[in-house]
Amino acid sequence: MPFDFGALRRRPDVEGRGLEASDAADRLILDEAAGLIGDAGPGEIVVVDDSYGALALGAAAAGARDVRVHQDLVTGARALAMNAEHAGLAGAVRPMPLGPELFSRARLVLLRLPRSLDRLDELAGLMAGAASSDVVLVAGGRIKHMSLAMNEVLAAWFDRVDVSHARQKSRVLTARGPRTQRSPGAPGWPRGERHDDLGVTVVAHGGVFAGAGVDIGTRFLLEQLHAAVPDAPTAVDLACGTGVVAAWLARTRPALRVTATDRSAAAAASARLTAEANDLADRVHVTQADGLEQLGDASERLIVLNPPFHSEAALHTGIAAHLFADAARVLEPGGELWCVWNSHLRYRPLLERVVGPTRQVARNAKFTVTASERAR
Fold this sequence. Notes:
Layout: H1 24-32, H2 34-39, E1 45-48, H3 54-61, E2 67-70, H4 74-87, E3 93-95, H5 100-103, E4 108-112, H6 117-130, E5 136-142, H7 148-155, E6 158-163, E7 170-178, E8 191-195, E9 200-204, H8 216-224, E10 234-238, H9 244-252, E11 257-262, H10 265-277, E12 284-288, E13 300-305, E14 310-311, E15 314-315, H11 318-330, E16 331-342, H12 348-354, E17 358-363, E18 367-373
Parallel strand pairs: 1-2, 1-4, 2-3, 4-5, 10-11, 10-13, 11-12, 13-16
Antiparallel strand pairs: 5-7, 6-7, 8-9, 14-15, 16-18, 17-18
Helix pairs in contact: 1-3, 6-7
Region (Disordered): 170-193
Domain Methyltransferase small: 200-370
Keywords: Cytoplasm, Methyltransferase, rRNA processing, Transferase
């Protein structure tokens, strides 16, 4: 029987209207790769950035076995595990961390094209260097999120890149002939950048928000943080990205211990490297987690957050609401959540309702910084 894509769920990720667990791009990738899936032996198929399991489980339903899978988001990995169990395919897929071993001896790689060209470059380089010489990459996405620059990135790592016909507003790129090295002088991953004005070096893997730079919202937040619960012995950098806030807090408050957490594996790896680059690894503890699930109730006096507002490609405020609720749970009475957000999102009423009394700390033409106090 054909695989039932409609049975897939996003849980424990945000679910809601307009947020689907699979789409036409998943089905097109699997259709374009159908013959290759049938020819591949156990362990020869790798699936990367498969949002909730459509590619891995679709391939398994077509007969693939020992499918190696890497998902950047911990919520996506958990959704795949639950979807695999529900479909009776749990034994057919094997989650792995991102690295050369993921792609070792692979003959077919199925990929949901990331929106970030840097992420695509890092992935292509890893698979070209570690996969079999006859590996075929079948990568697809929604046309509105694709660009010709994606073809150029793949062409730097593969001898041939073919483009499928469009179907249901989706398209697939197929790459063959991996090269172990790209053009001379091209920088590799991860990459670092020194920011003397902040006194921090930022290190980033491909695709992490703002890369090795520091986005203007985070800069605006950092300008205000000297006043954030100055006597707190510990702090949390929630949705930490590259860990620049955690590193800045630890550098400017020598007695402070910081927990940095993000649901993205690439972000958590980047934050660890950022802490190490600033000689702060002993005071910045980095975890990959869904929000603050690893922290106890009423355990922290200061949480700092620059909330993401995209779920995959969809604009959605449910992620911020989830993080606000988690912060409210973890803050001790009188503790504060310091948050920067795009002013048009108007988060203040939500913060008041979910966390507690909220004051505006600063505002400019684009961003608002607020401090929300947990009721005593």
